[in-house]
Design a protein that fits this description.
Belongs to the acylphosphatase family. Its EC number is 3.6.1.7. The chain is of the alpha+beta class and 91 residues long. The chain has one domain: Alpha-Beta Plaits. The protein is 25% helix and 38% strand. Strands 4-1-3-2-5 form a 5-stranded mixed sheet, covered by helices on one side. Helix 1 packs antiparallel against helix 2.
Length: 91
């Protein structure tokens, strides 16, 4: 069972720049499960579950993203009642 789950919404130039795939790579490295998917309004939504220190590191990464991204804002909320995925996927 993971220590923590958070949901994040990332705003900026985050679609079409490899943001979700890069996030998946970071999550796998940190042992975080969950998903990232594009929203119709241009944001990326992510669910991240894992050890608290890994979640903190991944949330820090969200604020920068891959080289071609330009993140302007990140909203994060802790979620308690969520189905915890056993891997990290992009949708």
């Amino acid at each position: 069972m993971p220590d923590q789950c958070v949901r994040a919404w990332v705003t900026g130039k985050v679609q079409g720049v490899g943001y979700r795939r890069s996030m998946q790579s970071q999550a796998l490295t940190l042992g975080v499960t969950g998903y990232a998917h594009n929203l119709p309004d241009g944001r990326v939504e992510a669910l991240m579950c894992g050890p608290a220190e890994s979640i903190v590191k991944l949330c820090e990464w969200l604020r920068q993203g891959p080289p071609n991204a330009h993140v302007t804002h990140v909203d994060i909320e802790v979620v308690d009642d969520v189905h915890v995925p056993d891997h990290f996927s992009t949708r």
